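Handout for the seminar on molecular recognition.
Each group receives one record of this type.
Step one: identify the two inputs.
Step two: read the structure output and locate the region that could contact heme C.
Step three: write two sentences on what you found, then compare them with the reference statements printed after the record.
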Amino acid sequence: MKKILLLSCITAGIVVMHACKPKKDEVVYSPVNYNFSIPDFAKKYIGEIKQPSDNIATVEGVALGRKLFYEKMLSNDNSMSCATCHKQENAFDDPRPFSKGTNGALGNRNAMTVTNLAFSQQFFWDGRRATLEGQAHDPVTNPIEMAAMWPDVVARLQSSGIYPDLFYKAFGTRTIDSNLVTRAIAQFERTLLSFNSLFDKYYYQGDSSALNAQEIRGLALFTGKALCNTCHVMNTLFTDHALRNNGLDNDPADAGLMSFTGLSTDRGKFKVPTLRNIAQTAPYMHDSRFATLEQVVNFYSSGVKQGSPNIDEHMPDFGSGLNLTASEQADLVAFLKSLTDKDFLTNTAFSDPN
Ligand code: HEC
Ligand code: HEC
């Protein structure tokens, strides 16, 4: 009797399992919220990621966004993806001074790193976009970048064998549109978090041997005499993400924030970039004028143009020059190099999935 009961239970179990198990190729919509990995020491300063309420990251959305970030169908001639100009080994920046579009045209600004942007609210050097979703819309149609038209891009993705199912998994619809494309890309970009440099080990995780004596002297200069942390704030992000004029020119060729707001009081203001992985993101400044970190530090030491329009309130502290000695400058550069996060540059979760 017992035996029969047991047998029928097993049979029932098998029937139930069989009914519930999706068929091998069946695509289901059951998204799982994505777990961002922000270390506790960073959370103390910057809290949790702020996501738009209509685009909460899911494992499926991030996976789709990653695929789209590396997808060349996003450009007019299928030759270029976001990653063409935002390369992982360069902290998702472009080592070329000016990126080249699909038609060979050169832009007039250096590409920007995509690092810890989940905490940023103004995008591009001139801050003209307020969300990552909005930002991701622009390069696709920019004539000097991917030079495509959204209806063409959407039609290609729609008729590709793979994408409709991936959109279904992420968003519950097989009907692709530009908003869903940019939402998925933004979800992926929010996962590009970098908090694992030697500096982090030394400063936040108590590993006193992680930095050498020169790097430690550089850190002291960064937060002290050299005044760097007034804008590249020591909030674990090394930026306040604000737009400021750091005194590059008395007569800026690029109006910066003013080219977006039209206000003369914004002339010469540019987004304060993060300094994380800065050794990987040469050349430097919005117009790539400096090839090396030594040149950058030399500029801050003795090259700041006090007559620059709307120069930031912190820059007059640089007065007639910080006049750092050669060895102080070398210390500062050594410290900047300790902000490299090797895991970030090689993390396979961020690499080309195709
Ligand atoms: C042809 C090269 C090129 C391509 C392709 C490209 N970008 Fe960019 N990206 C740039 C340049 C140059 C800038 C800075 C432009 C400016 O400020 O006017 C930039 C800026 C950005 C920023 C702003 C970062 C910040 O801190 O404000 C983000 C985010 C970004 N790109 C993501 C993307 C995504 C997503 C794609 C694909 C849909 C993409 N880019 C395609 C060159 C490129
Ligand atoms: C007034 C705010 C301010 C201060 C103080 C400041 N910076 Fe900057 N920093 C900026 C801004 C704004 C930019 C971008 C300027 C541009 O490209 O037009 C920048 C750019 C940089 C860059 C190039 C980043 C890139 O991705 O191209 C480096 C490196 C840098 N700063 C290091 C330093 C160091 C080192 C110090 C201290 C000696 C310092 N900064 C002090 C605001 C500041």
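Reference statements: The pocket of heme C (ligand 1) is lined by residues 74, 80, 82, 84-86, 99, 101, 107, 109, 111-112, 114, 117, 120, 123-125, 132, 135-136, 139-140, 145-146, 185, 271 (CB under 6 Å). The domain at 198-338 is CATH 1.10.760.10 (Cytochrome Bc1 Complex; Chain D, domain 2).
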